[in-house]
Design a protein that fits this description.
165 residues; alpha+beta; 4 strands
Length: 165
């Protein structure tokens, strides 16, 4: 991760801070005060499945997302639920930060996948272009990014991304 911008900690994860327009702060808790999501709740990633059967299975277990898009979705859900260990585990070693700084005033409210490039079981690299909606202190916002993914030791990991707006 060669570039870091003061933007929301992105669902794909390429910024360390979780504050729109803010900076990382070590005084913040390392876990977000996330909304209650249970195994039976609708999955935050937007697929028509319960969290436990969708992204929650990747968060809880040793299984890995089989495509770059599913990794993107599971990382978005990890931001929603404040799952720092999963985010760090699915981050490419060469760009992984020491920690993820969640902003308790930030709430992720929706994910739209616009486009995927490669990123299947037959590829070593892939891209996912998405829009992630959020509120910060009640004000709405949106993050538009093209994220890059690669395989590391056989599993998909997030590398970095480019802001599109």
């Amino acid at each position: 991760m060669s570039r870091r911008k003061a933007r929301p900690a992105r669902p794909s994860g390429s910024a360390r801070t979780a504050r729109p327009g803010g900076s990382a702060s070590s005084a913040r808790p390392r876990t977000a005060a996330a909304p209650a999501v249970t195994a039976d709740s609708p999955c935050p990633c937007g697929l028509p499945a319960a969290y436990g059967a969708c992204c929650g299975r990747f968060h809880a277990g040793p299984g890995t997302a089989p495509t770059a898009e599913l990794l993107m979705r599971s990382r978005y859900s990890a931001f929603v639920v404040g799952d720092e260990p999963y985010l760090l585990r699915t981050w490419a070693p060469e760009t992984r930060p020491a920690d993820v700084d969640f902003d308790p005033a930030l709430r992720w409210t929706g994910l739209e996948i616009e486009e995927t490039g490669d990123g299947t079981a037959f590829h070593q690299r892939g891209t996912v272009t998405f829009r992630a909606r959020f509120t910060h202190d009640g004000s709405p916002g949106e993050l538009h990014e093209r994220s890059r993914f690669t395989r590391h030791e056989g599993a998909w990991v997030y590398v970095d991304g480019d802001f599109l707006d």
